[in-house]
């Protein structure tokens, strides 16, 4: 089963798990120690992150280590980028409009003096 990356990062606990292991892999117990919830609850979050491809679990001996694979976050970046472009264009147009309005007001004030 492949989960939607947007649903995975919608949960603050899962975002925190990603933050924890973004730079260093950690074993499952070390991850769980950072949260005030049961280990099975943390395991469910890790399972969801694994299913959407944001985490990779690697077994080393008896331990299971989580490693972040943040490639899937590119989907989020691409989605956000379209709105960044949209709002940048709108705000630039607003800036141009306000600048023109200010210049018109300044010209009217100069003529009235």
From TrEMBL:
Pfam families xrefs: HTH_5
- Alphabetical list of Gene3D superfamilies matching this protein: Winged helix-like DNA-binding domain superfamily/Winged helix DNA-binding domain
PROSITE patterns on file: HTH_ARSR_2
Q: Start and end of every HTH arsR-type domain?
A: 1-88
Q: Which GO terms describe its molecular function?
A: DNA-binding transcription factor activity
User: What InterPro entries would the database entry show?
Assistant: ArsR-like_HTH, HTH_ArsR_DNA-bd_dom, WH-like_DNA-bd_sf, WH_DNA-bd_sf
UniProt-recorded name of the protein:
Transcriptional regulator, ArsR family
